[in-house]
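Re: the 685-residue chain
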Amino acid sequence: MLSQTLIPETTMRLAKFTSVLLALAGALGAARFSPEHAGRIVRLADPQISPDGKSIAVVVSRANFEEDRYDADLALIDITTYAQRVLTHDRRDVSQPRWSPDGALLAYLAKVDGKAQIFVLPMSGGDSWQLTKSPTPVQQFAWRPGGRNEIAYVALDDRAKVTGEERHNKSFEVQDMHFLLQEAPSSSHVWLIAADAKSAARRLTSGEWSLPASLPPGPPASPLSWSPDGRQIALVKNSTPYTGDSDKSSVHLLDVETGDLRALTGRAALETQPLFSPDGVHIAHWYPREGETKNVNEIYVGRAAGGESTSVTRRLDRNAQRAIWMPDGKSLLVSANDGTTTGLWLQPLDGNPRRIDLGNLVITAAFWLDASLGPKGEIAFTATEPQRPAELYNMSSQDATPQRLTDFNAETAALELGRSETIEWENEGFHADGVVTYPPDFVPAKKYPLVLYVHGGPRSASKQAFSRLAQLMAAQGWIVFEPNYRGSDNLGNDFQAAIWHDAGAGPGRDVMAGVKQLEKRGFIDSDRMAVSGWSYGGYMTTWLLGNYPERWKAAVAGAAVTNWLDQYNLADGNVRAGERFGGSPWTDVKRIQSYREQSPMNYAARIKAPTLILSDTGDYRVPITQSFQLYHALRDNGVVTQFIAYPVSGHSPIDPVYSRDVDRRWVAWLAKYLSPQQTAGGAAR
């Protein structure tokens, strides 16, 4: 296992602070992790290596509980000395730092009157200037190569102003979109603007089709990719702006001067994330294996001139989540979940992938790899260790030892945290794995409550990384188990695809086989077990509650999928939910029965465990209607339950106050029922 290079004390002010914390911890006894500690974790994201390879710009965010927001700034980290410089001041919601090709300017997004706009910062000195004044938020942007100092950006079309009596008419046509829609969605299109802000932006695309837009949480909308000569932009063309139609996507090339669009491969669906090679000859893009949505995502490469593209990651057999061209254009840096970590490989255009050794680091990859490459193949990334939240790291080459450049989260690392390990087991011909986090004072001879913390997705994976909620629960004296069930994307195509037509039963048996494996070790109190999760983790929670009702002492179901019919009709994914069942529930009697049989609501009357239900009122990903159904089913059957709603938009609370409230309620609810003196019936209703 690699050890990360330590930060020189002479160049890191925070190293002294760390020493003080450790000294205090030794003298007073280290504190255990709490929601208050969680609120002080510093978040790092989107590291971008400068064109000269000497420094890294990164977004640094801290919780501001008084204003209930995260305050983000850009920091510049010197790779050699580790010196830090804050680049932005008093800008709201800073994101997406991007260097100009010559490194003289750094552009980024920040909100003005609630709308993201592009700002440009001169690296020679001086303040940023606001480049765009788009009437709608800027979604993404990319610098034009070739020394022209121009930026292409994507924004929603502004709505036409209506006057007279019709200004009161807000009716619109509903198509394949989530049920919270208040108006027909606008298309996203491309604009071009000079970085000196001396001329107005020029529209490059238009029409009823749209570039993809991301509803958080989700992967970034497919970034624009310029050809090296600055004449073309590779982009993704969606047939409509409706989120239920987002699978109707294909890679196109835009001629910047003429506005002509041409398809790259001729496929009509499921293509995304195009990226020009450094020499402009090839384009890499995402596409599922054999065009089947149940299969792993692969990286396809074709000639930019057009024609067929073919998979270069078939031998990898993992659900690729990002690809970045190496400077020589002969290979790609590819990432994917792999076991209980984030794998990183050097993938040649023709040949076997070579795994890059990261030791115990787990690169941040919630939806794609949080990394960038330097001019000589240097790799900058954010990553966690099992007992340290994310920091910034750099590798001078793919064979170098990672160097940690920051110490923002020294306070958390100095706490008394739980140890974690990976466990593996076999079930029904599948090899499965998961992560176990132990209480800080774990003694194998004792018996401990077990809490399942099931990941969402389901295309995701539990990893042996720093887990905020797992550490919060371990601090209570519980063993926390995060299983990877079939449908997870960390163990190959067959494991991932096995969830098709088997949303809950097979995955549920995988989870329970993992529980049985833990019980054999002798330190699990089988009479004090709880299950919890968010999103698909909420689905698995409610499935396990109804199908293994005698096993659970308590549960927390966050944003739980409980009814597949609601997912099909009301969620932002909408009709795409039908893919896993073979089509629409409304065209086949047997198929609608399958939807119902695989919905936890079908088994809700069996649930016995006291259950806390959590959901956002404005959740477009998993509509709150499903939480209402679960709540009434439990109440009507006399099960102890509480339903807490957060009056915000999105799939989960992202502000610090509500996020902390979720943590507190999650832990407090389970604590009621996992204490040794609690009777089997739970607290009185």
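The chain is about 15% helix and 35% strand.
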